[in-house]
Amino acid sequence: MPLVTANDLSQRIGVEPSQLRGWLRHRQREGDPRLAEHQPGTRWRFAPDLADALEYDYRVAHDLEVEAAPGPAGWWNWQAQVAGRPARETSGGGIRVLPLWEEYALYSDSRFVGSLTAGPAELLLAFTDGEPVVGRSAMQLVLHVHDHLPSADRPTWDYEVENVASYYGGNTSDEFAALLSLALSVRLRSGGLIRSCIAGDDPAGRPMELHHHPPTLVAPQRDPMLPYIAREISLGDAMLLSTYPRIEGSDAVALVRAAQAYADGLWLADADPRLAWIKLMSAVETAANHWKAASFDSPVEQLRRHRKRVYRALRDGDPAVLETVANDLAPTFHAERKFGQFLEEFDPGPPTVRPTMAQVDWTDLEDPLTVLYEYRSGELHAGLPFPGPLCAPPAYAGDIPLERVGGLAVAFSGARWPAHRLPMYLHVFAHLVGGALREWWASLVRPPL
User: Fold this and answer.
1) CB atoms near residue 169 (< 10 Å)
2) DSSP strand E in 68-119: where?
3) Is residue 246 classed exposed, middle or buried when 0-12, 13-18 and 19+ CB atoms within 10 A define those classes?
4) Could you please report the per-residue DSSP string of 116-133?
5) What is the per-residue pLDDT across 368-383, written as a single tens digit (0 to 9) for each?
């Protein structure tokens, strides 16, 4: 990854290099930990995400126009704390009043124990009564977040230009809820703001109900789609969250987007299993698209790998027809190829507890994933629903859920599927997706200084 020099950064900002270097030396003397390793007399060199953060700080400090580099709001706030910026002490004036801190309600059907501090955020137990029950959501945590970001004036935007580089469809509470959901394999959603503190007001803050909307979690009609999803969990197990500030801003955006899709998949599993399948597959595609571009085979080879039945029907006929069909279908295979490559690269391995029968063959996931991707495409582009047996709770062998449909075939609502076309239950796919996303998250982390 190429480093950014002080000259590069000064050109981006539009100032003289000597001005920027003087400001960097001042920041270093003030104790900015990001600059502590720099030796006098050597060239300033920065990782790209650090260069983005320093550019933002310089623009704010010198009242220059600010167009922030990509990065979720919570990630930027954590970066500011790491940089040594103190928590906000004033709320500003005029039409922009900035809270010193805010609290959000987080809902789950699991129960949490322990404590967790994540940079400028703290997870507080809500001490809800009762044991965890699948589908019974309650406010289990309170997310308390101090604001460390600078009080920049509203930037002068080009209103003709769309900018969604950092967009993930939520606020800081949605960001942290999704990351915790992924880190702990648990259902967790934000219910919105419940308390806020403005400078000069009550230091304990004021209750805020206007934006508080407890999310609805639908209980299973019979057995849950995701066995073991509701349980007691230690917040101390979310160690992966501590690495969040050590990934780049653009990576953080992709991670949060993928984590939100994964969290949606868990949340919707009992309410709408078809949509849960789509959300979990979207989480993989989001991560895979960001991960790397696939190196593609020839169109005919892609047809052989991804549409075996079509290939077998055409392979003994006119080669020109085979090539034409393969060329027409090849663009649809690129996303599928990245999907499969991502899960192969970051495969977490099979579940720890496995049944003695109807196991998924974890040594050969290519065909099962190809089948599932066909169902995803049929659902999205042809209105063909995911097979009913894959949207039903798993059967059990004793107390352990089966990993795939047993028997030779299943008939459902006038349709039928051979067993090999029903490759795994939703809970097994959720295990695969969650584990792969966590492995990918870990791969994004830069080593500590």
Assistant:
1) 9
2) 101-108, 111-113, 116-118
3) middle
4) EEETTEEEEE----S---
5) 999 999 999 999 999 9
